[in-house]
Amino acid sequence: MKLPETPTIEKIEIEQQNINTFLKDVTLGLGQHPKQLQSKYFYDQRGDRLFQEIMTLPDYYLTRCEMDIFENKTAEIAKGISADDTPFDLIELGAGDASKSMHLLRYLKKLETDFRYMPIDISGNILSVLNKKLNKDVPGLDIVSLEGEYFEMLYKASQFSSRRKVILFLGSNIGNMELEDAYRFCFELRKNLNKGDVVMIGFDLKKEPNTILNAYNDSEGVTASFNLNLLERINKELGADFAVDKFEHYETYDPLSGACRSYLISLEEQSVSIANAVFHFEANEPVYMEVSQKFSMEDTQKIAMQSGFKPVYSIMDSREWFVDVFWTAI
Q1: What is the DSSP secondary-structure string of 18-39?
Q2: What is the pLDDT of residues 36-82, one digit of tens each?
Q3: Which of 83, 153, 195, 235 is the most core-located residue (most Cβ within 10 A)?
Q4: What is the pLDDT of residues 114-125, one digit of tens each?
Q5: Which secondary structure element, helix H or strand E, spans residue 75, and what is its range?
Q6: In angstroms, rounded to a whole number, what is the distance separating the alpha carbons of residues 78 and 56?
Q7: In whole angstroms, what is the distance from residue 321 CA to residue 206 CA?
């Protein structure tokens, strides 16, 4: 199933609005001290491709850990989300290529479960790729794709259908928020759900520090290219003049707080023009790009209970490095 096509003029207006928001966020971030850029803008067409490559790297354990859960414990997942066997909308926030949830979709379809799959992603490109993939690999699947921000699209999904909601938020995407933002996110998520709705959230657990650091600082340099690609995107879409080769990727991990943070470092004193603004960078000045927060099991339970959810149960991978938790809205 597809939502009605957006009129061409409206599409153009939306695209222009997106560019204006992108410009506003970039200039606001670079005007702060310390400078920062929002990681949600990593995902243009090249960014999507680079992230797919990152997920296959030997040191990037996260995808394999959660894939282990989806491949080997699919029935447990299905049991957790099917609840009272009533029809439901399966809404995946930040769906990407759905490589993990694909196992669940096939399993539910095989059981003739009455559900609709609603992938939400900020990248229209990846949603287009996903639709083609699902039409081929899970024929007959009821799909409604939603391009945009999580809560805007979640509201749209609730207007589209009144069925019970099951939310998938996988890949430790919740870790890409500061802790206080993760709490606010879960609280806002609860506000958009009804009592009895289910959420399944992936959390990357605290573990040996070098294992974590190596996952975000691969020797092949793919993660570095992924981060630097945001500067390329700003040049292309906003007419900026970043000299990308004058910046380098830098990663840190704090085992006490569980925060793994990425930066771009200016290799020399330089200035960059964006629209009508000029931004000055000192030599060795960092630009904060992203946090990849790691959690304890106690952390996940605390977040749930303070956000209006009841922890129901959890499923870990075989190495117990990663956990998918199931919460019910109360």
Answers
A1: HHHHHHHHHHHHHTSSSEE--G
A2: 999 989 988 899 899 989 999 999 999 999 999 999 999 999 988 87
A3: 153
A4: 999 999 998 888
A5: helix 74-82
A6: 26
A7: 8
pLDDT value at 84 more than 50 = yes
Helix axes 124-137, 101-110, angle to 10 degrees: 40
- CA nearest to 326, candidates 191, 167, 115, 101: 167
- The DSSP letter of residue 143 is B
Residue 52 corresponds to which tokens in the numbers above? Answer: 């797919």
CA dist 39 and 34 (Å) reads 15
Cα 312 to Cα 100, 117, 223, 305, 315: the distances in Å are: 21, 23, 35, 11, 11
Average pLDDT, the chain: 93
* SS3 sequence of 185-229: HHHHHHHCCCCCCEEEEEEEECCCHHHHHHHCCCCCCHHHHHHHH
Residue found under tokens 């995946």? 92
Where do the DSSP E strands lie in the chain? 35-36, 88-93, 115-121, 146-147, 164-169, 198-204, 247-254, 259-266, 270-274, 277-281, 286-293, 309-316, 322-329
d(CA 103, CA 308): 29
Confidence of residue 323 (pLDDT cuts 50, 70, 90): very high
Flag the least confident range among 96-100, 276-280, 297-301, 313-317. Answer: 96-100
For tokens 């520090």, the residue is 209
DSSP helix/strand/coil, 112 = coil
d(CA 138, CA 109): 8
Pairing of strands 88-93, 115-121: parallel
- Name residues whose C-beta falls within 8 Å of residue 36's C-beta, 6 or more positions apart in sequence: 29, 30, 287, 288, 289
Which secondary-structure segment (H or E) carries 157?
helix 150-160
